[in-house]
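Open question from group meeting: does this chain pack into something compact, or does most of it stay loose? Before anyone orders reagents, we agreed to write out a predicted structure and look at it together. Recording both the input and the output here so the notebook holds the full record.
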Amino acid sequence: MDRLRKEEVDGAEVRRIEDLSGQDLFACYQCGKCSAGCPLGSFMDLLPHMVIRLLQMGLVAEVLEASSPWLCACCEMCATRCPRGVDVTKVMEAVRLQTLRENRDRVHPTVLPKEKLLELPQIALVGNFRKLTA
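Structure tokens returned:
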């Protein structure tokens, strides 16, 4: 597999994700160690290394639509396993932030059933809305 270089990808969106995360996406050479160690990988539609690869290819829209960045537990297992020092957790946070900056909510408070609003702990609701809504 040929390794992509920044010069080959035309994408202000990719640079924005790099700037927000502080990570060099093109340092990743797709070894898969991040995905192998991810405790939530089996629940993700895109494994962590796949998120990085799509971003390397300039396919930011596919990553923004995925559920994987929202499922990331931010446990830093990926960062500790990466031989190139890419902190995928920071990339996932940057993707979430970019989605919210585009005013695309991940959860809509108005569609939650009233009984759930009364039943769930307030701190859980506030934390959820702060993370998942613009």
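Observations to bring back to the group:
DSSP finds nine helices and no strands in the chain.
The chain has a mean pLDDT of 87.
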